[in-house]
Amino acid sequence: MLKKVVASTVGAGLILFGAQAFAGEWKFNPRACPDLVEDRYDRIEDRRDRRVDYGRRDRREDRHDRRENRRDEAITVCPIHAFYYEPDRRELRRAAHHGHGYGRGRYAARPPLAYDRRIGMPYRYVKSRKIYIRG
């Protein structure tokens, strides 16, 4: 009885932990997402604008710009090509004899996504930030 329990535990451990050892991973390129690039340029412009003038109208305009930027940063929409798959070295070796790499053709790899019904778009979490993906 004890041998069966130990054997099943070891087998389950090998299956659960061994499957992830040879898998590649999905990575995110923030420079390929125009929404994130725009947010970055807006923050740079806000810092530059804050240093220039200190009048009452300018402070009001700065507050308005910061509010608009926060609202714009709340939802981030990126194209699908901002995600790329980095295969494991064993996967590359297996795919080398097929004559094609990853991410080409009709059977290109796509990241695992979840669907937000409220907005009606697929998304993926990247560093605890929800990134919506435009197909």
Low-confidence stretches: none
The largest sheet is: 4 strands, mixed
Structural class: alpha+beta
Main sheet: strand order:
2-6-5-4
**Shape category:** elongated
The first-to-last residue Cα distance is 53 Å
Beta-strand content estimate: 15-25%
Reading the helices and strands in chain order gives HEHHEEHEEE
Describe the structure.
By secondary structure, the protein is α+β, with helices and mostly antiparallel strands. The chain is 49% helix and 20% strand. The protein is built from 4 helices and 6 strands; from the N terminus they run αβααββαβββ. The protein has helices at 2-21, 34-52, 56-74, 89-96; strands at residues 25-28, 76-79, 83-86, 114-116, 121-126, 129-134. The strands form 2 sheets. Strands 2-6-5-4 form a 4-stranded mixed sheet. A hairpin with a 2-residue loop joins strand 5 and strand 6 (129-134). The chain is elongated. 5% of the residues are buried.
Question: What distinguishing features does this structure have?
Answer:
single chain; elongated; alpha+beta; two-stranded antiparallel ribbon
